[in-house]
Amino acid sequence: MKKIQHIITILCLLIFLPCCENDGGDSKISTQKGAVPNIQKLENTDTFIDILSVQSGGDFNIGFSVDLAIGKITSMDIIAFYTKVDGTLTKATIATNIVSLPATFTLNKDDLFDAFNNLNSADDISTGDKLTISAEITLKDGTVLKIINDDGSNNFSSNIATSNLYKVFQTYNVACASYLAGTYNYSTTNIGDGAYFTTDVFTGTVTFEDQGGGVYIISDASFGGYLALYDDTAIGVELQDICNKISLEGENQYGDTFSMSNLVVNGNTITFHWETSYGEFGDTTLTRTDNTNWPDLTL
Fold first, then answer.
1. Distance between CA atoms of residues 233 and 220, nearest Å
2. Contact status, residue 234 vs residue 221, Cβ threshold 8 Å
3. Which letter does DSSP use for residue 88 in this model?
4. Phi-psi sector, 203: left (phi>0), alpha (psi -120 to 50), beta
5. Which residue in 274, 192, 187 sits closest to 239, CA to CA?
């Protein structure tokens, strides 16, 4: 089932078939809609908002470029969402009626205070908050496409979310410096999906690719579990490290989310249980091979 879905997703991207993610009348934006932005973090700018610097009176300089990846448009607005650690979401418009692309933007602490009414000083910025940059696109026929809905939910399909060709949003976490990038040995057992279960042990390596700000792309978020179930890997999911508090974020290529529990840190190994919104699960041990120990990670 999942392998077939994966093939369909690839076809949607390559030849722009009129595919949709859901069949109940609530289909999300996909490539057939005609326009997709490409938002990238600029080199030599901050990839996250350093809470320690902000609390000590320092500033930050985040930068991003905005371009059109697919389609023809009339204009583009640059939109920002600030999500507090308690879940409170505030939306702001950074720039309107952008017609000349690509365009670049930089934001510092004062820009954030000007954009968001609930941010007035460094005391209003907390560990675990996040700033998300996206866009609203006006098509040639006047249709306005919101890449992210006003409530903060994604308004695009999983094939767009996992694309390696473009990014439709960028996130800047309020966090501490993080150093979890690397390649680690995994050992996963007790793998199942509700209908199938095995205690066989699957081993291999997994890579955490640093995206800045404590965000890492995981080469296989199932740590061999999908290998056992589907002869596949789980891509598109990120590991997030906010001052040593970790979580699995985003969706895989099938639109499923991941969660972790039962985390135990023991020197150069960590063990945890993972599950997906589809119902898959497994128990994984990750071992460092660089003669160093894991930091004091928590969930």
1. 5
2. yes
3. -
4. beta
5. 274
Q: For the chain, how many helices (H) and strands (E)?
A: 5, 18
Beta carbons within 10 angstroms of residue 181's beta carbon: 12
- Type and span of the H or E element at 40: strand 35-41
For strands 170-175 and 49-50, give the pairing: parallel
The SS3 of residue 2 is helix
Please state, in angstroms and rounded to a whole number, the distance separating the CA atoms of residues 70 and 41. 19
Tens of pLDDT, residue by residue over 64-99, are: 999 999 888 999 999 999 999 999 999 999 999 999
Q: What SS3 state is found at 108?
A: coil
Query: At residue 268, what is the residue type?
Result: N
Q: pLDDT digits over 117-147, tens only?
A: 999 999 999 999 999 999 999 999 999 999 9
C-alpha dihedral sign at 93, 41, 222, 26? positive
Instruction: Give the Cα-Cα-Cα angle 282, 164, 280 (nearest 5 degrees).
Output: 15
Pick the range with the lowest mean pLDDT from 33-42, 70-79, 170-179, 266-275.
Answer: 33-42
Distance CA 272, CA 94 (A): 40
**What gap in Å lies between CA 109 and CA 27, rounded to an integer?**
37
Decide: 210 and 218 in contact? Cβ < 8 Å.
Answer: no
Distances in Å between the Cα of 27 and the Cα atoms of 99, 155, 165, 234 are: 28, 9, 22, 23
33-to-12, 25, 26, 119, 252 alpha-carbon distances in Å: 12, 15, 14, 35, 22
